Amino acid sequence: MAKYKDFYFSLYNSDKIKKDGACRWKTLYKKHEIIFMKKYQDILKKALTIVRPTPSQQKKLHSLSKKTLSLVKKEVKKVGGKAILAGSIVKDVWLPSKMEFDIFILFPPTFTEKKLENLGLKIGKKVITKLKGSFKIEYAEHPYVCGNIDGVDVDIVPCYEVKSTEELKSAVDRTPFHVKYIEKKLPLKLSNDVRLLKQFLNANEMYGADAKTQGFSGYACELLIIRYKSFINVLKAAVKWQPGEIIDIEKYYEKENYQRLRSIFKNQTLILIDPTDRKRNTTAALSAQNFFKFKKCAKEFLERPSIDFFLPKKWKPMTEEELIRKLIERKTELILITFSPPAVISDILWPQLRRFADRIQNILEETKYEFKVLRKDVYSNEKDLAVVLLEMEISRLPVIQKRIGPIVFDLDDSERFIKKYKDMAILGPYIENNYWVVEIKRHFLTAQEKLLDTLSKPLDILLAKGIPNYIAQELAKGFQIISETSKIADLIKKDEGFGIFLRKYFEEKNLA
Amino acid sequence: MAKYKDFYFSLYNSDKIKKDGACRWKTLYKKHEIIFMKKYQDILKKALTIVRPTPSQQKKLHSLSKKTLSLVKKEVKKVGGKAILAGSIVKDVWLPSKMEFDIFILFPPTFTEKKLENLGLKIGKKVITKLKGSFKIEYAEHPYVCGNIDGVDVDIVPCYEVKSTEELKSAVDRTPFHVKYIEKKLPLKLSNDVRLLKQFLNANEMYGADAKTQGFSGYACELLIIRYKSFINVLKAAVKWQPGEIIDIEKYYEKENYQRLRSIFKNQTLILIDPTDRKRNTTAALSAQNFFKFKKCAKEFLERPSIDFFLPKKWKPMTEEELIRKLIERKTELILITFSPPAVISDILWPQLRRFADRIQNILEETKYEFKVLRKDVYSNEKDLAVVLLEMEISRLPVIQKRIGPIVFDLDDSERFIKKYKDMAILGPYIENNYWVVEIKRHFLTAQEKLLDTLSKPLDILLAKGIPNYIAQELAKGFQIISETSKIADLIKKDEGFGIFLRKYFEEKNLA
User: Fold this and answer.
1) Which of B398, B430, B510 lies nearest to residue A330, judging by beta carbons?
2) Is the residue at B499 inside a domain?
């Protein structure tokens, strides 16, 4: 809205307006603010039709959750536990696109882990089966039952009922504390504001604290609404956030200690203190990119409100022609390493992909090779394709490679250096600035050759080179190195998501 | 000779020889050593015909020097000074290719500098004129008269007669001390050994302590013969020299202090203590390259004695075809900066050329540009051509250039960075590892463009960029940047010396 203020202010400063005086400007500005508030209201009203479930959806989810909870409670009673509803169904903040609820089974901390897992799975399976649902077993910190009943996702998760967050046995034990806090602190009338925030984040690919998204969790959305009281207020606040921003709803910390707090939560752009555990940053998974992206989206929405911010952006895959144009424009070389993604959960896959890309960059840029990566990114459809994209600044090097050895006064090292390179040298050993130098033939003239050599190795060597284990296993089975635009275009034809990823790689990169 | 020893030793170890016993091997080895000594004698005899002046040359130089000295002495007497012969004529160590002698006029230290210079020049001019020679005034630390009489170079140099080297007023005052020392310590019978050493160094381009050659002075040659007693012994010793070698003829230092001495004469490969001044290294100008080159030549001569070591090597200029082959082999790019050498003495020209080349490398390799020089060298015919040769490892870069900014937590710097690059950015600002990054269009895509821009500037800017003053003055008048092999070939046609320099650049580079 600042720009409108500027606009009116410039009017105010013009001679014409000056005659009318300050009053006139203030009235104009106020009038405009009212117009704007009206515009927000219109847009949010429209957005609510997207984010608010229909009465029938409401009815379906609530009756199913009630029924499921009572069945679980019945079973749990026999073995001495409790059961609670968890997830977005609590306080009614779920999105119609995500019909789901969780049931947490709380066992006494005296149970062994084995007993907790066995009982949890047994009860989960029994209840889902009784409700004619299908299920599979998933693994977080404990195994749990991941069911689907009549199109609704139902997770039944066992955990320990501990007295406080100080006594957590695993991260899942934390959820009941979150449920309790939200139940107590989030007024029902703010449910739709949470929904708006979630949908706003969702449409802009920042919803989810998982390793792929690196965005905001549902719990973080609820806390932000509790703190700022409305969706619009969250956006207004976000515009002013600075990296290292601290949001401490329960005021656990004095302002004097904020600097210390920042050094504890080092390199975290947003520090949203968990009201149920003062030592935890609820938004620890948020990437710096998404922190600034959220600030930018918030600013843009406040300046030019539009329903588009709540609708997932429709990306078109990049075409071969566009790609060729980009590469001519940038005069860089694209190299893709493609392989099958390992069959591991998303939260393991993405960190491994990113670590793999880092490792590859290091290998290419080792002094011995001296190639240079301009930028890189990773993609996977999580089914049959994983890609490391390397955009090369320097991908070709001369045949001649210079090796600088020890200073001539270091006799032992000099002897070793000369002995090692004497026969290999194309020129030298000679001396430059008192250091021994040889010129030898470079082994790998292109980054592609070096990559092919590095990755065409048995599993144990790949692991020794520091390639993450699951990725190394896949590479040992096979991979491809692609650079020609026609082959990249073929890949886009096979996998549209990759084409979209390519477009985002070249286009979606302005956070200021 | 070691290799012959090895050869006989291997024979000795063979079964056949073992029967004959150790005695037989020793006899063989001794016999061989005798054969070898005979071979040295033959070669050195031949070499002496090159290095020893003919009787008529001897007569001419000695009579002229006597006559000149007596004339100078007569003039000097009137004003209260002395005169001595200096240079290679003392102790008869001059080469027939260099018919020359120096006369030093020694004035009392009470004379003002002005008076010394005026009297020195006046006497010099008068004497040379009387002998029907031509002369010009040259400038070392004082101006002096540089004459030529009947084809003989005669320098008449004024200096102060000080009591000891502790009281030197300038470097020329040192010469009388050197003359006295050599007169006293070099036996006449070793004159020809000095000549052999000088010619050996001369033929291999290591004779002269000037800034271009960076080799051994005549005085250093005389000292080496005094120390090792013969030419062959100097070579045998040199083979064993190690960087930081200390030769202390007058035993001024205890061996315990050698390490400290090396740290005083830091980065000097050969420390030949001046017997007339214990604080001075006579071979301070010797480059590390020439130190190792001398060791290598010595080793090769001892292993395979040949008259060739005393004959200047005949280099052929590189041909265009050879150059093309080299560049295809190496896959590098040659860039030449050519310009007129400034009209300054050689000892100023060469250090400035080398500093200029260093500066150019730094400018090309600044982070902003990121070109990379593999190797470089400088050439001048000291008349109308000076060249900086740059062999590029990376001479072309993509259009896209990445600028990495501050960490996002550094708010002020981040603001400045974003403000600076926001409009310039082709992509970004975005974030990588918590640092702001932008991609901008690179200004100079090739090293040639960058060079052209850097050097096409007025004199004051060139000087501000750290380009040595005399070179900067020439560049401001004009220069060329050449890269195409056909144009390099044209340059070779115009200047054969440059063609030879090019061949040496690619070929003469093995010091081990």
Assistant:
1) B398
2) yes
